[in-house]
Amino acid sequence: MRDEIISAFKLVVSNSETLETFSFKENIRNIKMVWTWHQDSPDELRIEGPNHEQVSAFLLIFRQFIQKKDRCSFKYLADHALDNPDVSDEWKIEFTKLRESLNEFLDAHPSFMPIQFSDEPMVSRHEILKTYISGMYAHGEKDKQELLEKWRGKHKILQGIFDTQFLRTVTGVYGAIVVLSKLCIKELDK
Description:
Elements: H1 3-21, E1 32-36, E2 44-48, H2 52-62, H3 74-80, H4 89-107, H5 125-137, H6 142-152, H7 156-188
Antiparallel strand pairs: 1-2
């Protein structure tokens, strides 16, 4: 196997192991929105699950798996490992299935959240993920911040729905990262 691919596979494993150490994952099974409406006082919203600080720390490494140019990203591996004759056909088949499944997950909109704003298309998990990362956690991009305000600013319940969907999307992608790491470990052990 070429050094470039070995290095990429090792980075996948290393970054996955680093994600495993973050406190983010301690609360991912219990992500939920608690919204309380009161007739004579403001409604209350609480998101149960990882807090903002835990999410921010987790995303530093997590983003490397979804950004196209990072060596451990799904896109990079598709572009560089799938055509490598030294990578086993078994790895290529399993990786392709995993990537297709991940893309289907990201391209779909959450089924119980059919929210549409005016003539815009339904919001996909991928759009939620990109918007939160670029508008709230990483880059502070003005257009993403404005979109977040549009989604979250209308009513507290919408804020809760989008916030929980973002966390569930991160969790879904993290599951794919764990599987990818296992595939890379198996390939490196050959």
